[in-house]
Every structure is written in structure tokens, then in C-alpha cells.
Amino acid sequence: MQDQKTPNRQYNLPHIQNPGAQEVDRLRDTITAIDADINTLAVGLGTKADKTTTANLQTQIDELSILIYAGLI
């Protein structure tokens, strides 16, 4: 498995050589980490985290996982 990360926050990055199902789990972990970081920043700024953006990202990941599972990407 290729385990590449972003340079600053060390979020998981997908890699073409990794199995699709494994990448879906990694992407879900990444989105969860981003959500937590955004919430922390929002709380620090005294604002509310945008749950709509997180829900939209989750929907896109769910759709991506279906395409990966179907072997379309």
C-alpha cells in the first residue's frame, strides 16, 4: 500500500496503486480529520462550522466509493 500524506496536516492522500475499498476508508478518515480541524478553527473564531459543506463532501465520497466498487474508476 502506498501511504502518501499531505505536507502540512498529514492527511491521507489516495494513490492509484491502492485497492479502491482501502482508498474509500482512507478518504473517509481524511474527511473526518478535515471536519475536525475546520470545527476547531470555527470554534476558535467564534463561528459555527458549516455542516452543509461536510455533508456535501460525504455525499461525494459515497458516490466515489460506488464508482470505485463498480470498477468504473
What does this structure look like?
The longest helix has 26 residues, at 20-45. This protein is mainly alpha-helical. It has a two-stranded antiparallel ribbon. The mean pLDDT is 82. 62% of the residues lie in helices and 5% in strands. It is flat and about 45 Å long. It has one domain (4-69). A hairpin with a 6-residue loop joins strand 1 and strand 2.
Q: Mind sketching the topology for me?
A:
Layout: E1 4-5, E2 12-13, H1 20-45, H2 51-69
Antiparallel strand pairs: 1-2
Helix pairs in contact: 1-2
By DSSP, the count of extended strands is 2
Q: How many structural domains does the protein architecture include?
A: 1
Structural class from helices and strands? mainly alpha
Query: Measured on Cα atoms, how large is the radius of gyration?
Result: 14 Å
Helix content: 55-70%
Strand order of the largest sheet: 1-2
**Poorly predicted ranges:** none
The ordered string of helix (H) and strand (E) elements is EEHH
State the distance separating the first and last CA atoms: 18 Å
Count the DSSP helices: 2
Tell the overall outline: flat
Overall pLDDT score: 82
Task: Give the biggest sheet.
Answer: 2 strands, antiparallel
